[in-house]
Design goal:
With about 350 residues, this protein is of the alpha/beta class. It is about 35% helix and about 15% strand. It has eleven helices and eight strands.
Length: about 350
Amino acid sequence: MKRHVLRPSWLFLCAGIILNGPFLPGGQSGEAGYSREEMRFDSGRFKIVGDLHIPNPGKRQPAIIIVHGDGPAGRSPSRAPNRIIHSFLDIGFACLIYDKPGYGESTGEFTPGKLFEERASILLDAVAALKNHPSVNPKQIGLWGISQAGYVMPKAVALTNVIAFMIAVSCPGMDSIEQSAYLVEKQVECQGYSEAEAKKAGRYYRQRARAKTYREYLEAAEYLDQNPVVSSMKWGGILSEDRFSPRLPSDQVFFDPTTLIETITIPVLAIFGENDTQIDPNKSADAYKKALQKARNSFYRVVLFPEANHGLFLSRTGCMNDRGYSSGYVSGYIELMREWLGSLRDKWERPADSL
């Protein structure tokens, strides 16, 4: 049995998807007529700084807010639009991307156990800021989000009627315990362990997270701490008995986003990579389909791309160390989003009596 220790730096991969994408040169794309302006807004104790990229300055246009995944994330170091943002600008959608609190120029720290709620609140304030911008159509503001954004966007959509659409990329269709257990299983397997050993690690991860007694917790925590792959992730260690207490039902780790997706009737595009080793793409895609059908959503698509990893890059295995296949996005990913947004724009422009 091969035993390789996984470096803990992979934990922020999904946060780096926006930052590490192919960037275009320069802070402003003058040849295309795009403009960029800095936006600042307060959200409770958070002070948020971002960039609004505008394809048609002086005109009202639809807009997309970029919602990051886990970990530190923000605007590109060059302040230039990356390939995804540029593809939206090319079809006339303005894009707002902002630094997460504590990263870049945005300030503030998230409250332990309140991450999803606070991120959703910031997102709502971003929507409000865009709604009042003279270059944005206030009825055509939507979201593009990846990974952990799947826990944030549904909360924001449920709290307002201003958000017009949502593009969810590699977003989990389950609570974060199940999502993380899947991630643990896949990373253990990627490091050369057997499928049985990987399943065991996932099972103990669930047991540790859901433990009602210290004995139940300790059994799982000791196993996970002795597994080189899991222990290298730096997810907890072992608590002493006096520090242990069972998680409350209200803990955010039990939040299943599909309970809110079941109520979402705005247009939704959900995209997954079949080789994703961070969220279960098949279960998540199925969960999105069932939830949107239950919502009687009449404008949605759920798409799985073969040989695509968590960031929708080409990857034979989806493992973190599978870097040699390709640095490019899977064929059809960018085109799908542009086509879908085009059909959405056609729907907006269609006379009401023809719907």
